[in-house]
Write a structure and sequence with these properties.
The chain has about 110 residues and is α+β, with helices and mostly antiparallel strands. The chain has one domain. It has 4 helices and 4 strands; from the N terminus they run E-H-E-E-E-H-H-H.
């Protein structure tokens, strides 16, 4: 899983919290990498999380949430509720059910 964010302390604290949670929940099944976007500023609203598994799945996007992108309904900030959602979503996406099934819909319903 990739977390792309600014080098701001608050962004890095959230990335660390996600990394610890995923290490606890998934162990070696999911490797979390934090990529610091050096040129990004706070006003750029860069905080993207995606999973590279059987497919590449965008899980969180602060940019899309703040720009009212069509078809994006996720929150802008990552809080405990969002981390719980990410953990549930990743658990499904790395499962055999996701690997061997056809995805008829493009939107995940929790």
């Amino acid at each position: 899983m990739i977390i792309a964010c600014t080098g701001d302390d608050s962004d890095l604290e959230i990335a660390e919290k996600i990394t610890l949670r995923f290490k606890e929940d998934f162990g070696k099944q999911v490797f979390v990498e934090t990529r610091i976007m050096d040129l990004a500023r706070e006003e750029d609203n860069v905080y993207e999380i995606w999973l590279e598994s059987y497919d590449i799945e965008l899980l969180h996007s602060k940019k899309r949430a703040t720009s009212n992108a069509k078809g994006w309904s996720g929150p802008a900030e990552v809080d405990d509720v969002q981390i719980d959602f990410l953990a549930r979503r990743v658990a499904f996406l790395i499962s055999d059910d996701a690997r061997y099934s056809y995805r008829m819909e493009m939107e995940y319903v929790d």
